[in-house]
Amino acid sequence: MVDNRYATALVISCVLSILATVYLSVAIGTQHWYQYSSPAVRGEANVSELRSLHEEFMDGEFDEKTYSDTLFRLNGTVGLWWRCVLVPANAHWFKETDVKMVMECRSFTLPQQFTPKYKEPGNHNSGEDMLRTYLWRCQFLLPLVSLGLVVLAGLIGFCACLCRSLTPTLGIGVLHLLAGLCTLATVCCYLAGMDLLHRVSVLPDKVDGSLGWSLYLALISSPLHMMAAALLVWAARSHSQNYYRMTAYRVA
């Protein structure tokens, strides 16, 4: 028989865990982690340059400098697995006053996620930048680890429900705590990586960068996982202490 307090704590922790997992999954699958705001383009020379950047972005070989320059110039957004640019739907958009804009995206393939970063983006002779390389790898591996921990916790919790036991609750709480820390580390790695990229890159004039809603979703999911972990640990500890007291009372 489970006390109502413990049952309430378990239900609330399950709701928090589900919300955190949904938020994190949406954040991983969307590209609005960081977004650039570029000034309007005037003049056919600039238009031709941007068109060539766009074509290289969509069809060219993977190169950090190429896609970074395109993101800077074409109102780009970049996430963990996607990079997108905002381009006109009409090829002769520079002659029109009212232009319809569409977003075109490319995904980071798994081999591209492990591609080394260089001290000077695009210059392979400048030497590998180990810090940026491992920050990039951590930012896409850690959220997958976080989701894996939550799935494992869910499987253990399901088995515990079938066995009608609160014994694994402490372990489930620890798994949620680790998941929350992995998500928080993901956001920190991403922000540090973007800051280092901006230090080694030359941003065009009047180009502004800002954090996107996908990053905020990931940031929100971290404390939700931690709150779920706190409730689970509290329920496990309190139930264990109450159980030992009842056992000691019966023995006495």
UniProtKB/TrEMBL annotation:
It is found in: Membrane. GO terms for cellular component: membrane. InterPro entries: CLDN1, PMP22/EMP/MP20/Claudin. It is a multi-pass membrane protein. Its main location: membrane. Coiled coil: none annotated. The chain crosses the membrane at residues 7-28, 140-163, 170-193, 213-236. Signal peptide: none annotated. This is Claudin domain containing 1a. The lineage of its organism: Eukaryota, Metazoa, Chordata, Craniata, Vertebrata.
